[in-house]
Design a protein that fits this description.
The complex is a heterodimer of chains A (116) and B (115). Chain A has 116 residues and is mainly β. Chain A is built from no helices and 11 strands. In chain A, strands 2, 4, 5, 6, 9, 10 and 11 form a 7-stranded mixed beta sheet that branches. Chain A has a 4-stranded antiparallel beta sheet with strand order 1-3-8-7, with no helix packed on it. Chain B is globular and about 50 Å long. In chain B, strands 2, 5, 6, 10, 11 and 12 form a 6-stranded mixed beta sheet that branches. The chains are: A mainly beta (116), B mainly beta (115).
Chain lengths: 116, 115
């Protein structure tokens, strides 16, 4: 049963520290999405990759957030420096994006980030 | 441009009674529509999706949704609620714009099932 995996599942850190979250998409999937979920804002799309290239990162604060795909099996979301308002659950999702189609997304379990 | 509105933030039903979770959307192109479910402290799981085939879509766990273009709606229903259906449900609209996918999530509807 193929699944998206995310590490760590929980992270507590202090303000100003760097945080790196990792996602392993389902093998063979070529699209990766990063979302942030908070009580106040709900689910927000942060970034979207297809074939490892960033297609849309307009939802991501550029000054402190960065998202990359070093290879097809790993996506990373980094926050530097972290702030208390970044506390949220961060979800990664992957899909099999075909040209001209919209993807079904398969979600990972999330990383719960707490910034003190 | 696209948007999605989930009309109820909370819905409460008794076990064994029907479930109706409402979703309206707007889109300037032919969208795909999805319903996802999120159980507490879990990720999101796909319930069903509409991609311009049959307007009545059947999903997992007895859920189904009907795409009504004239009403721009995609309401989620289930004939008989089960305790395990208690979760948060998200309606999602997705479409291609400028060559890549735009995804918009609704704000979610929390379903409470009363024994």
């Amino acid at each position: 049963d193929a699944r998206v995996t995310q590490t760590p599942r929980h992270k507590v850190t202090e303000m100003g520290q760097e945080v790196t979250m990792r996602c392993q998409p389902i093998l063979g999937h070529n699209t990766v999405f990063w979302y942030r979920q908070t009580m106040m804002q709900g689910l927000e799309l942060l970034a979207y990759f297809r074939n490892r290239a960033p297609l849309d990162d307009s939802g991501m604060p550029k000054d402190r957030f960065s998202a990359e795909m070093p290879d097809a099996t790993l996506a990373t979301l980094k926050i530097q420096p972290s702030e208390p308002r970044d506390s949220a659950v961060y979800f990664c999702a992957s899909g099999l994006g075909l040209a001209g189609s919209t993807d079904t997304q398969y979600f990972g379990p999330g990383t719960r980030l707490t910034v003190l | 441009a696209q948007s999605v509105t989930q009309l109820d933030s909370h819905v409460s039903v008794s076990e064994g009674t029907p479930v109706l979770l409402r979703c309206n959307y707007s889109s300037s192109y032919s969208p795909s529509l999805f319903w996802y479910v999120q159980h507490p402290n879990k990720g999101l799981q796909l319930l069903l999706k509409y991609t311009s085939a049959a307007t009545l879509v059947k999903g997992i766990n007895g859920f189904e949704a009907e795409f009504k273009k004239s009403e721009t709606s995609f309401h989620l229903t289930k004939p008989s609620a089960h305790m395990s259906d208690a979760a948060e449900y998200f309606c999602v609209v997705s479409g291609l714009s400028g060559g890549y996918q735009k995804v918009t999530f609704g704000t979610g509807t929390k379903l409470q099932v009363i024994p």
